[in-house]
Every structure is written in C-alpha cells, then in structure tokens.
Amino acid sequence: MKNKKDINLVPLDELIGPEGTEKRIEFDKEFENFMIGMLIKESRLKLEMTQEELARKVNKKREYISRVENNCGNITLKSLRDIVETGLGGKLKIEIVL
C-alpha cells in the first residue's frame, strides 16, 4: 500500500509533450495566464483587499476581477496595468524573450 505522501511526478514532456510541440505551446500559454491571475489574487490578499474593493479602484465589476484571478485568458494590457498599478499600487513589468 502506498504512503499518502508518495507522489508520482511525471515530467511535462511525457505528460503534455516536448517543448515546441503545439500541445506544449498551448499548455505553456494557459499556465502563464493562470500565473498572472494567481499573482493578482496573491497580491490582493496580501494587501487585505476584497475583490469588490479592487474592482472599485479600477472601475470594474467584482465579477471581472474574479474572472481575471481565476482565468486570466482574455485581459487587455491596459486592464492588467490598471489592476496592478492603480488597483494594487504595484509596478507591471513585461519581458520579451526571443
């Protein structure tokens, strides 16, 4: 019988496919979207701010903030900047890697 602490980790290359394949590229994009949403949520919680409070600061509905935090797949750069800089008081940094 396996110990509950034993975790069988499967490399992403085996689970999704090697880097550069269509399936892996799509997975990586979705993961980056997920991470943006999680960073926003984590920052908001660190500031002890509700979704409603953040929404008011950036003139959006609470439901919009919830969607961004849970699936950041369709957000404009302007909205992202507003949330980070105006709503959270942070600084948005974007990197281009070639």
Description:
This protein is mostly helical. The chain has 5 helices and no strands. The protein has helices at residues 12-15, 22-46, 51-57, 62-70, 77-87. The protein is globular and about 45 Å long. The relative contact order is 0.11.
Spatial gap, N to C terminus: 48 Å
Q: Overall pLDDT, averaged?
A: 90
Helical content class? 55-70%
SSE order:
HHHHH
- Give a count of the beta strands, DSSP E runs of length 2 or more: 0
Shape: globular
Summarize the biggest pleated sheet: none
Runs in which pLDDT lies below 50 for 5 or more consecutive residues are none
Q: Structural class of the secondary elements?
A: mainly alpha
Strand content: under 5%
> Whole-number radius of gyration?
17 Å
Task: List the total number of helices.
Answer: 5
